[in-house]
């Protein structure tokens, strides 16, 4: 803890003075982040570090398992964060970011006994769809590491589906104002994979190549037609 406190002092004496113009601008004019990232609370995954983001670039929501509960009437931290990011900050890109060696996904892939942690068990029910996909659609003889990787990838897919149940997100998608991204960070390889919505597969993000996007910007109305104006 003393080491962390020392870094706070370094921020006050070195980092902040060197970036005071940026912080003053943010304090005076407010924030306008480029994206919302929903990622795991795992200490090894730091969204700002992965994206090399400056202050004000990224709106971040972190929780165990990078989970997005389906929209419901009861209030929740993730739901409120999503709603605020879309309706107040005008975020146009939302990223759900999973990662390798995720403890939450390991609990699901190994059917761990979570009796002593009822809140964790209740939270992870939002990943049961991914768990069922892995249990019934993948071979049984996979290694533990492969099972864990599959769980983390399928969980990103499941949480993106939940995200679309949120009214603010659904409306933004319909108007073509919001794109969804599914990412997976491989800690061991130092590599980020992105979900391609057309193929349903994850592939590495590569400079000079089209970025895989789960759901790109585009107007999506079920009855997308031009209606004649009623005569006055």
Outline the structure in words.
With 232 residues, this protein is an alpha/beta fold. Helix content is 41%, strand content 15%. It has nine helices and six strands, in the order H-H-E-H-E-H-E-H-H-H-H-H-E-E-E. Helix 3 (47-50) links the parallel strand 1 (35-40) and strand 2. Helix 5 crosses helix 8 (144-163) and helix 7 crosses helix 8. The chain is globular and about 55 Å long. The mean pLDDT is 93. It comes from Sphingobium cyanobacteriorum. It is an enzyme of class 4 (lyase). Keywords: Lyase, Zinc.
Keywords, separated by commas or semicolons:
single chain, 232 residues, alpha/beta, six-stranded mixed sheet, 9 helices, globular
Structural class: alpha/beta
* Radius of gyration computed on alpha carbons: 20 Å
Largest pleated sheet:
6 strands, mixed
* Mean pLDDT, all residues: 93
Oligomer: single chain
Helical segment count: 9
Strand content: 15-25%
Tell the overall outline. globular
EC number: 4.2.1.1
Family: Belongs to the beta-class carbonic anhydrase family.
Enzyme class: lyase
Keywords: Lyase, Zinc
